[in-house]
Amino acid sequence: MSSRPAAVLAVVALLVLSSFGGVAQVGDSASTPSPNASATNAPPADSYVIEQDGFCQQIEPLSSGGTVESFYDYRNHETHPEGVDRMYSSYGTEHLQEDDTSILFLHEGTDGVSLVTVHDRVDGNSSGGVATFDIVGLPAESEWVVQNDNYTGETNMAEWYSGDGWLGASWIWAEERTDGGAINGGLNDAFAATIHPMFNEDAEHYDNDDLYDPDYHDDGEIDDWEILSGDADNPDRTDIPSLDEPVTIRTGTCDGPSVSYELLGSGSGPDGGDADAGVAAAIENANPDDQIHLQPTAGSGDEVRFDDVYVSGLDDDTAVTFENNHPDDLPDTPDDVPGLGSLAVAGEPALENVSATVTFTVDETALEEHGIAPEDVSLYEQEMNESAWNESTTEYQGSSGSSHEYAASVESLEGLTVAQAQPEPESGLSAMPGFGGLGSLVAIAALIGLLAVRYRE
Asked: Where are its TM segments located (predicted)?
């Protein structure tokens, strides 16, 4: 037999193997795009800007050789002994503080990137003050790691809030003291955090008769809000235009698309009972080639956490909402498989002609309880205007402690749910259309016979 029919027969042998052993499988990890591959125009994750109502400026983190906690250096009677200055204030940022001024900056240290705010000046000439912040769009890992005035005692009147995708605080401070805090976790990658400020008369603790000392602030006021950038010893200082309008600090550049967030509920504080209703993301100046990073809420249950959405195909301005409930008009779970958690998503205008990569985390204990192997988890999506679940191409990315991580490619963002993958087709079915296992053998045997006759010497 010549070399040519031998090569043909080798191809035929591969067809036999693929018919029974599955040499190539649809939807395996090799064919799943990673989040970074879902678009060609992703914003840089090591470049930062601050935005407020048309104002945008590039900023750089203030860097030090330690943690943000050591840089802030908060001191009170529990953290420092007598004989050491401990006016319940930040001493590490004393050189940055100004009277009647609130400062805002990113810090980069041994614990990564942190978001820091300090109100007023220790040993200064101010009367005191009050302020409330809601900071929305934060990653699930974000937390207050520095809490100015977090100590045991009835004189501690600061309040700290946390929810799904947001953190908040209400501060009240006396003359010659500071207040504030620092957030760390999840800020080393792409993020957009929107601060909804309430200073002075708008703050939760202004004229709050339920406080231990409602007059503690002595009618002091914050007059200026500044963003700091660059050298940690002598940074550039820029006035933030308004004390009232939201401010967003995000990765990217002023030339690229912007993302800002707000709570769907009423916010933190005593009246914020529905603050975990969800979040809304406002995207501006996007074009279809841009890769937009969105921070979703965690989802409908504790077993699954939706971590990131990287979406492409948005055109100009779009509003996207994330709610921790099951999408309307859809079955509880895909057919015949256990469901773990869902996320309702909506867009204005509708999220048509988009593609996205969704990352999510599944609790290991939940998989064990349901008898699901980590590799047998899939993300299901709702197609536009359809009332059924479609299984998406899902990549298992490995375990991290007590959880498992995944990335999935979707063509719609109307509704998402995580469930067990659909069962594989029964073995013995052919990958060749129109042929069963036995039919494939007969067809291949006939093909080999014809080739033998044609190329017989």
From this structure: 431-453
Closest by CA position to 393, among listed 369, 405, 377, 404: 377
- Tokens 């104002």 -> residue: 55
Tens of pLDDT, residue by residue over 351-409, are 888 999 999 999 999 999 999 999 999 999 987 777 889 999 999 999 988 999 999 99
Instruction: Count the neighbouring beta carbons within 10 Å of the beta carbon of residue 409.
Output: 23
**Would you say 397 and 358 are in contact if contact means Cβ atoms under 8 Å apart?**
no
pLDDT in tens, 49-86: 999 999 999 999 999 999 999 999 999 999 999 989 99
Q: How far, in Å, CA of 107 to CA of 181, rounded?
A: 12
pTM, rounded to two decimals:
0.84
For 192-248, what is each residue's pLDDT tens digit?
Answer: 999 999 999 999 999 999 999 999 999 999 999 999 999 999 999 999 999 999 999
Q: Please tell me the predicted confidence (pLDDT) of residue 120.
A: 98
For residue 373, the 8-state DSSP code is -
Within a 10 A sphere around the Cβ of 427, how many other Cβ atoms? 9
For residue 150, how many other CB atoms are within 10 A of its CB?
A: 15
**Cross-strand partners of 250:** 49, 192
Task: Measure Cα distances from 82 to 65, 75, 86, 176, 178 in Å.
Answer: 27, 11, 8, 18, 19
Distance CA 378, CA 386 (A): 19
Residue environment code for 281-315, b if the CB has 16+ CB neighbours within 10 A, otherwise e:
bbbeebeeebbbbbbbbbbbbebbbbbbbbbbbbe
- Per-residue burial over 102-124, b = 16 or more CB atoms within 10 Å of its CB, e = otherwise: bbbbbbbbebbbbbbbbbbbbeb
Query: Which residues does residue 395 pair with via DSSP β-bridges, in sequence order?
Result: 407
How far is the CA of 119 from the CAs of 87, 98, 242, 354, 402, in angstroms? Answer: 14, 9, 16, 42, 39
Residue 104 CB contacts under 8 Å (≥ 6 apart), including other chains = 50, 115, 116, 117, 195, 225, 226, 227, 228, 240, 247, 249
| N-term to C-term CA, the chain | 7
Q: Which fold has domain 31-44+272-425?
A: Chondroitinase Ac; Chain A, domain 3 (2.60.220)
The 3-class SS string of 232-267 reads CCCCEEEECCCCCCCEEEEECCCCCCEEEEEECCCC
Q: Are strands 55-59 and 48-52 parallel, antiparallel or unpaired?
A: antiparallel
Kindly list the domain boundaries of the chain, sorted by start residue.
Answer: 3-20+427-454, 31-44+272-425, 48-251
